[in-house]
Every structure is written in structure tokens, then in C-alpha cells.
């Protein structure tokens, strides 16, 4: 999950650094106000596989089976 946080007091950076050290969050470098965020890659790669309808359905079924196996756990 990606959340944007505006830091109001400088002391908050210490708290964020401690949370990052505990692997609770990841702090990314700040984006300058006049700088746009990087473009999303999904429009660039959407449809990049060029699959037929049959191959696409087979691909989606394989992905779903993998997810179902992952949910079962190791027990």
C-alpha cells in the first residue's frame, strides 16, 4: 500500500526513521512540489503478451491456480 504523508514537524523524521529501521515502513525520497511522480508502467505493458483468447484464458487459470496454492500454506 502506498500512502503519501506530509511531515509537519522535523521531529517526525526521527519517528519515521525508527519505523523504517523496524521494517514497518519504507521511506522514499520526497517528491518536489513542481516535480511529477514517475509514470505508471501498467499502460505501457498492458497487452504486451499478445495472447490469443484461448492462451489468455489458460494463462489466467494458471495464475489463479498458483494463487490458490499459495493460500493453502505450507501446513
Protein model, in words:
By secondary structure, the chain is mostly helical. It contains three helices and no strands. It has helices at 12-21, 42-45, 53-72. The longest helix has 20 residues, at 53-72. The two termini are 28 Å apart.
> How would you name the oligomeric state of the polypeptide chains in this document?
single chain
> How many distinct folded domains?
1
* Helix/sheet category: mainly alpha
β-strand amount? under 5%
Instruction: Kindly report how far apart the N and C termini lie.
Output: 28 Å
**Fraction of residues in H or I helices:** 40-55%
Question: Would you count the extended β strands for me?
Answer: 0
Order of helices and strands: HHH
- Let me know the largest β-sheet: none
Low-confidence stretches: none
How would you summarize the topology of this molecule?
Blueprint: H1 12-21, H2 42-45, H3 53-72
Give keywords.
75 residues; mainly alpha; 3 helices; 45% helix; 0% strand; flat
Outline of this structure?
Helices cover 45% and strands 0% of the residues. By secondary structure, the protein is mostly helical.
Amino acid at each position: 500500500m502506498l500512502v503519501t504523508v506530509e511531515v509537519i514537524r522535523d521531529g517526525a523524521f526521527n519517528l519515521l526513521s525508527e519505523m523504517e529501521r523496524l521494517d514497518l515502513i519504507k521511506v522514499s525520497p520526497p517528491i518536489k512540489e513542481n516535480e511529477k511522480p514517475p509514470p505508471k508502467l501498467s499502460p505501457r505493458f498492458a497487452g504486451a503478451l499478445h495472447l490469443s483468447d484461448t492462451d489468455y484464458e489458460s494463462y489466467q487459470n494458471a495464475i489463479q491456480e498458483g494463487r490458490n496454492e499459495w493460500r493453502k500454506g505450507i501446513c
